[in-house]
Amino acid sequence: MNDAAPIEPRPASTVLLLRDGPGGIEVLMVTRNVASDFASGALVFPGGRVDAADGGPAMLSCCRDVAGSDPGAMAFRVAAVRETFEEAHLLLGRRLGGNRLLAAGEVERLEAAAAARLGRPPQFADLLDGGEVELATELLVPFAHWITPVGPPKRFDTHFFLAPAPAEQVAAHDGREAVETVWISPQQAIAESEARRVTLVFATRMNLAKLGRSRTVAEALAAARADTIVTVCPELVEAPEGKLLRIPAAAGYGITEMPAGLTARAWVPRGTGTT
What we know:
The protein is an alpha+beta fold and 275 residues long.
């Protein structure tokens, strides 16, 4: 009998960056590197684990206050902004005291100044050292909360956020964790998955379906603000028709079960397939 304690899930943040496209709402997604041992090769939203520095005084001093958010909650927001920059090169930030999100040229000048000062390519925190930039953490709207079930060697306690994309910046993948970026409608992403042209993990697929109920960015943000978030920890169950993934009805996804074969597992041992 295995008496090992369950692996504790790591805090993580994920961002659904939104824009209004010609045919309706679009979301930014990135393709994970196939060398990754988590969501290998899958189409995902930018995101990753929360670092200790994300909730530290230096980082929080660069954020506008968010009502009801303690340092722990703010760390998830900072991680969301940081991961968006690191994976998609979009900076949810503005000049200190301003209201307009930074344009691409302003981000490039910040990076160039930091590189000249440090003698190396700048990291996310380096762009904040001059005290000129304020992170737009208050623009993030909580959307969902998912926890990886017990079993996989990597588990995450992930907070999903919605945010309007910076209109004057252009997304670009980092070439390491993310190898492609794409603006896509939720319906198209799901259709591409059903046609086996892309891989979606369960949480991604379900949150795409939830997002797809809204036609515009304004509608999606308003719906998220009015929603009550229920934590989801999917359960894999055996049924006469095969294995099912089960989630609570109260989470508001419109379904409680889905055949496990319709989505990929987030974690796959090296040398195996993605399903």
